[in-house]
């Protein structure tokens, strides 16, 4: 049921994160969507090796203790072009060029076949902007064994981390906060050790081309760090090839800044309490705020965040799993706000660590950010939705090269929108309708303004989709070549065709785009209507939907994406609910869950919800398998090399919105059994 007057402060407060020991996979972060800093139990980044990230390439391990921004990108010198990795594939429209990759992506590593493939996959890469941690200026180096009496708390209502502990027997208290509108970190340290050898070190790495290690400390001669002292602080001018940024530092407590090495600044203090403000900027910034100003701004921002938008209270039911689901929901709102609400689509590991070198995957954009409008925070999606317009010329160029009008959106990209060589990414289709779905969600939340704002993106997307689908005896089909959302078919991409999920998504999105034409005062586009109404029906084998209409039809690992043709995709004429129900039951009984990904469980819950099976929806959302785990900090961990997976968090919020609020004209709370007695407010229905 809905319910007014949810005590939001109590709801959020009962899920504050409390830490009493080092949990290697679960450090805490502060951030604002554009900038994020992750710290260990010291309140800084003192022990990065205690929070390792396994790298899938030959590089050494990275760390979860990164400082990252939406603008912080780097490329090593190189002069390669995608034309060096392009080859023609046979299609129903004749030979078409695709960016491809001859090297090997199987297993846990990468083996590009050429220097061009290697460089184009690795550049640009997101930077770890700098490391901020405690050091001892006298005596032996600090180790994590020097810590006792640890108590750290992330107060979600204020966005502030407070860390208390004993360091070699002496008390230390650290308060850590991020400015909500600037790339500024603020820290207050209280300890008698400050006046007797406890210092703060800022260290700066080179950019890393490794898969998951964002910092390369082995090339001190490849970059420059120029320290300019100033009253009460300093500025560090950073230059890495074509990338430059400044790090401005202001401090109290008798602080003094001095070079500590080629790329290090040592901050020492004479008083037992000190405040430190560090700003990261791609150009010279303005006057730094004080520590108190940052903490106050953070408190106002997060109180406003939690007091507005959607809320879900699960405290009234009798299911023992409800508190855990409520915890995941609250923490996922915080995590997606600090990692997935920037000016570009986020990486799957957000601003916490690199995965795929920090590049973002556009097929994941929906799972990162579609929930924002559903939870009454459409503006957080709009920050990145506008980015599509910035790469529209490149997307149009791709479509034109493939003989189609409109825009074909890439898969694995950096801010410039350039595709990456791969035997998978350039052949994926399911990211193509996403901008239509995302723009439609904003329109439903914000009204007519969104139609004018995103019309170009929607219309160009639909123009390519309608032209890409080719007519045949069974209707308009997709491919070959292609790779379905279930990427298990990459080896047969040259013959893969008509995946069930993509057929339904194509039809639905084209119908939405046609409605946008009417809202814009434009005449209907006959070709779009013809294609949307005439998409080929998905293949049914033995009473079940196959993954695609080509051998091997269905393999039982990775994403069970045929389920998502009804659930993620609203009802269409292409999908029979009873066949989908049988397919859902078959998947639940036979699938290889170890090979799935974190967003699969919310997606399955959405399918069960649309089919009127709320118990199945809840069971899927909370399935006790490794890829569906949510750590103490709320993150959805996958593996040692993918220890953070934000599509799982965003997908959870989208699924819960559907389960609690439903869809247009649908029943109330269709995804929860009546015994859960849910209360919600501020949620919007899905289409």
Walk me through what this model shows.
A hairpin with a 2-residue loop joins strand 19 and strand 20. It contains 17 helices and 30 strands. The chain has 687 residues and is an alpha+beta fold. The model has no long low-confidence stretch (mean pLDDT 96). It folds into 2 domains: 225 residues, Distorted Sandwich (Beta-galactosidase, Chain A, domain 5), CATH 2.70.98.50; 323 residues, Glycosyltransferase (Alpha/alpha barrel), CATH 1.50.10. The chain has a 9-stranded antiparallel β-sheet, with helices on one face. Strands 11-16-23-22 form a 4-stranded antiparallel β-sheet, with no helix packed on it. A 3-stranded antiparallel β-sheet has the order 2-3-6, covered by helices on one side. Helix 7 packs across helix 10 and helix 15 runs antiparallel to helix 16. This is Glycoside hydrolase family 65. It comes from Nonomuraea deserti. One of its GO terms (biological process) is carbohydrate metabolic process.
């Amino acid at each position: 049921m809905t319910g007014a007057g949810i005590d939001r402060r109590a709801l959020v407060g009962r899920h504050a994160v409390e830490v009493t020991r080092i949990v290697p996979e679960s450090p805490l972060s502060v951030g604002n969507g554009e900038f994020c800093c992750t710290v260990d139990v010291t309140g800084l980044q003192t022990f990065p090796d205690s929070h390792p990230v396994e790298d899938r390439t030959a590089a050494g391990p990275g760390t979860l203790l990164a400082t990252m921004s939406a603008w912080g990108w780097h490329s090593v010198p190189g002069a390669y072009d995608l034309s060096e990795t392009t080859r023609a594939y046979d299609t129903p429209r004749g030979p078409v060029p695709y960016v491809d990759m001859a090297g090997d992506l199987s297993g846990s590593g990468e083996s590009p076949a050429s220097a061009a493939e290697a460089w184009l996959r690795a550049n640009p890469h997101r930077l770890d902007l700098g490391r901020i941690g405690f050091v001892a200026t006298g005596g032996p180096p600090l180790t994590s064994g020097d810590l006792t009496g640890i108590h750290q708390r992330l107060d979600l209502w204020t966005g502030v981390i407070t860390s208390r502990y004993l360091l070699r027997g002496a008390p230390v208290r650290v308060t850590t906060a991020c400015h909500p509108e600037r790339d500024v970190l603020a820290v207050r340290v209280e300890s008698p050790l400050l006046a007797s050898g406890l210092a703060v070190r800022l260290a700066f790495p080179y950019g890393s081309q490794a898969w998951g290690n964002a910092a390369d400390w082995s090339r001190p001669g490849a970059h420059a760090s120029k320290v300019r002292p100033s009253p009460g602080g300093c500025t560090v001018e950073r230059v890495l090839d074509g990338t430059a940024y400044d790090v401005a530092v202001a401090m109290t407590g008798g602080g003094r800044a001095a070079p500590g090495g080629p790329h290090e600044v040592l901050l020492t203090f004479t008083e037992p309490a000190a405040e430190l403000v560090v700003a990261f900027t791609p150009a010279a910034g303005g006057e730094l705020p004080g520590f108190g100003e940052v903490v106050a701004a953070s408190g106002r921002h997060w109180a406003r965040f939690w007091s507005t938008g959607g809320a879900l209270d699960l405290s009234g039911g009798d299911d023992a799993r409800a508190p855990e689901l409520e915890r995941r929901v609250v923490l996922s709102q915080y995590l997606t706000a600090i990692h997935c609400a920037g000016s570009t689509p986020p990486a799957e590991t957000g601003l916490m660590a690199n995965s795929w070198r920090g590049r973002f995957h556009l097929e994941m954009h929906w799972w990162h950010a579609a929930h924002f409008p559903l939870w009454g925070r459409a503006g957080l999606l709009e920050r990145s939705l506008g980015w599509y317009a910035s790469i529209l010329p490149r997307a149009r160029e791709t479509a034109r090269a493939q003989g189609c009008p409109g825009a074909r959106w890439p898969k694995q990209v950096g801010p410039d929108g350039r595709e990456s060589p791969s035997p998978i990414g350039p052949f994926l289709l399911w990211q193509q309708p996403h901008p239509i779905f995302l723009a439609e969600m904003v329109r439903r939340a914000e009204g007519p303004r969104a139609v004018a704002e995103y019309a170009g993106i929607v219309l160009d997307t639909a123009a390519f989709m309608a032209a890409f689908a080719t007519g045949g005896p069974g209707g308009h089909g997709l491919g070959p070549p292609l790779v379905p959302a279930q990427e298990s078919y990459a080896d047969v991409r040259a013959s893969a065709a008509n995946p069930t999920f993509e057929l339904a998504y194509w039809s639905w999105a084209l119908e939405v785009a046609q409605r946008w034409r009417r809202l814009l005062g434009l005449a209907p586009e006959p070709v779009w209507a013809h294609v949307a109404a005439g998409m080929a029906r998905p293949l049914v084998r033995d009473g079940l939907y196959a993954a695609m209409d080509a051998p091997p039809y269905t393999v039982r690992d990775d994403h069970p994406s045929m389920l998502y043709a009804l659930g993620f995709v609203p009802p269409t004429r292409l999908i029979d609910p009873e066949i989908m129900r049988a397919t859902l039951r078959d998947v639940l009984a036979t699938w290889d869950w170890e090979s799935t990904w974190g967003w699969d469980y919310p997606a399955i819950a959405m399918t069960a919800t649309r089919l009127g099976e709320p118990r199945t929806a809840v069971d899927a959302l909370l399935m006790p398998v490794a890829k569906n785990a949510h750590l103490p900090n709320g993150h959805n961990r996958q593996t040692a090399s993918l220890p953070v997976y934000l599509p799982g968090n965003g997908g959870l919020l989208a699924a819960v919105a559907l389960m609690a609020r439903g869809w247009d004209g649908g029943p109330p709370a269709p995804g929860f059994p009546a015994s859960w007695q849910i209360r919600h407010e501020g949620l919007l229905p899905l289409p």
